[in-house]
Amino acid sequence: MNDEGRPATGDFLTMQDAAEFLAVSRFRMARLVKEHRLPVYERATDRRIKLLRRTDIERLLEPHPKARAA
To answer: What are the pLDDT tens digits along the chain (70 aa)?
Structure first.
């Protein structure tokens, strides 16, 4: 953790940190990745740790037009 209480991964968050940031479950985060709504990155030193770019996560919070049924 850095001085601001964020993980020391720079512009990336772990799946758990991203889930806490969005106030959703880790299962929901995994679903967003599986649906290709969020790109996932791996840490070079430990491929088990999945990382998400902070800007991609923040983009999910932005308002977007509601899709209409055809």
So the answer is: 444 554 445 799 999 999 999 999 999 999 999 999 999 999 888 889 899 999 999 998 888 788 777 6
Q: Is residue 7 part of a domain?
A: no
Q: Name the token pair of 54.
A: 């902070």
Domains contained in the chain, number: 1
Sign of the CA dihedral with 9 first, then 3, 26, and 21 last: negative
Show Cβ contacts of residue 64 under 8 Å, excluding neighbours closer than 6 positions.
none
Q: Is the pTM of this model over 0.85?
A: no
Does residue 52 form part of some domain? yes
Q: Domain containing 54: what range? A: 14-59
